[in-house]
Amino acid sequence: MSTAAITKNSRYTLNNGRTIPITGFGVYQTPASKATTLVYEALKVGYRHIDSARIYQNEEESVAGIAQFLKEFPDVKREDIFYTTKIWNEEQGYETTKIAIESSLERAKDIQYIDLFLIHSSLTNKEKRLGTYKALQEAVATGKVKSIGVSNYGTHHLDELFAWEGLTIKPVVNQVELHPWLPRKDLQEYAKKHDFYLEAYTPLTQGQKFDDPELVAIAKKHGYSVVEVLLRWSYDQGFIPLAKTATVARIKPNFDVLDHVVLDAEDLKILDKPDSYEVLTWDPTKYEG
Description:
Blueprint lengths: L10 E3 L5 E3 L2 E3 L5 H14 L3 E3 L7 H14 L9 E6 L6 H14 L6 E6 L6 H17 L2 E7 L3 H9 L9 E5 L7 H10 L2 E5 L11 H10 L3 H11 L3 E4 L4 H8 L1 H4 L4 H7 L18
Parallel strand pairs: 3-4, 3-10, 4-5, 5-6, 6-7, 7-8, 8-9, 9-10
Antiparallel strand pairs: 1-2
Helix pairs in contact: 1-2, 1-9, 3-4, 7-8
């Protein structure tokens, strides 16, 4: 899909034929006590893509927000909403992953299935990574997990997966830290070559770049917020950004970015930093184990 044609309600078609909403709402660092409300409010605004993880300790609460919304808005069907969770490092390995998948499915029972299950990071070893992926492939066969993928994988981890003789289901995404200061051109090329999408976590830099002079100048030039500029940049790269906020009032402005925010060629040239490698969170993509 051309990024020029996208809207906030657009969906990309994954390599398995399923579709994913391009506007994602993440619940990283969201307390369980707030997750249900924030997810519900995000869905009310129009988000249809919720990204959780086992290590976030808010799977059950995120699912409750989805279930509550579906109950109150029957015109929206379960298949309209895309729910993601992830296998944490300590749970990797074939047998332990099977147990973890069942645990996540139990927490998701009120929404029947999980749309996307990811390996959360590469920080284990080859045997555990491939064992985890084997268990995820088997979960797809049950119909209770619809798509699988990876997160925080570097090109060498992807090489390991694609060279594995047991690979029968290609990853549909690799979720990594992405923003103008960490564009990961190598992973962009890899994703294009192997037909999967990059999901961008920390697309808003956790606020660490909000006072960057170039970013501020672009925002002032158009009358946008720096958040709007960062999200639009991410969409323009063909990424699926996962915006997160703990403030209900900020949910709608984040969701509405594609309605009115446009970056021109000069803006994109300024934000094009192909050689920048500024990690603002963690970087398992470089892990060699």
